[in-house]
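lol so apparently i was supposed to do this last week
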Amino acid sequence: MENNSYNPFEAARKQFDKAADLLGLNKAAKDFLRSPVREFHFSIPVRMDDGSKKIFKAFRIHHNDARGPAKGGIRFHPMETVDTVRALSMWMTWKTSVVDIPLGGGKGGVICDPHNLSMFEQEQICRGWVRQIVKNIGPYSDIPAPDVMTSPQHMLWMLDEYETIAGGKFPGTITGKPLGMGGSEGRTEATGYGVIIALREALRELKIKPEITTASIQGFGNVSQYAIELYEKIGGKVICVSSWDNNDKKSYAFRKKEGVNLKELREISDTFGGIDKNKAQDLGYELLDGEKWIEQETDILIPAALENQITKNNIDKVNQRVKIIAEGANGPTSPEADTLLNKKDILIIPDFLANAGGVICSYFEQVQNNMNYYWSKDEVLSKLDMKMTNAYASVSNFSKQNNVNLRDAAYLISVNRVANACQSRGWI
Ligand code: GLU
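anyway here it is w/ glutamic acid bound
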């Protein structure tokens, strides 16, 4: 993150305020929706492998649960802040709303760096996290899921701790579980695939064949890898991908003009999506500075890493050829950069629409848990496609009818739904 004064919660509030004013929400509604409905801040004591004790700071924040239980991932990140979690919880509320699934918005975080923690230490963080919050999560109140640097294994440790305390089996408490342990087929692929389904619809509207397009992607984690997979399946070519190098504490971009090879990149990357730069060079990739992903001469840019990556400082570097930015990450574009981008002829598919595939599939996972009956991968993915395609179409239609951009359209639809739910419950 290059801009130290950036505060994601301020950015999220700025976006909300704009939508609230356009919708003419009253003061109570604005006050209620500008802040999370409840927050939990706690400390997790962990016995480290060397015998010492270490305390990890952690959060769970429920932004809104008017449309259903709070829903959202848990991030493990050394730079996690309470305001980041607040922003992410608010974005989850709009995400579940814009794709119209019966869930609210929440988010969790632990300030830690899993790169430097053993699996046993990570297991204790997961179990400790659940022990602190056990009364305030559950299938009918708040359902966590994976996010940055958390995996199905982390979710299973959390579920196991919850079920041990609760004294029963409650698989719908957490989503993103491993297959065979209550997880859903397609959940791992869902976020990245969802980004490309939204992109496919955008290309279709613009009458551009995916086969003639190229893309540059920031990040090589779960979202990016599956976005590349589906984008290639629909005929596109990724020519550049960036990834975080934890040894050098900086990111690098890897370019191959004839198209990156997903399989070989996976083989030379770690579990966090860190690509081995020496091996990549041996395979013929050009090694560039991490920032260069944004400068590539491609039709499509997909930021799929962290928030605040497209800013007023690098916006001028976006190539003239770029037609679409599909936001795979949460909050990758700062509000200032967003305003500047809207003056250019670039279609931005906003984060909480573009990356909603993950939470849609989490919802399917819960439905399957409740039935104790599991769908095939094809069934899950075709339902995902239908949900994403419909959500994209309603946002796009709204944007055309009201002459607003896709982000504003998505905000107006989702904030309106949440405000109506709060109002009918008598909260505002
Ligand atoms: N962490 C993902 C997101 O930001 C998925 C959340 C979920 O499945 O609940 O959308």
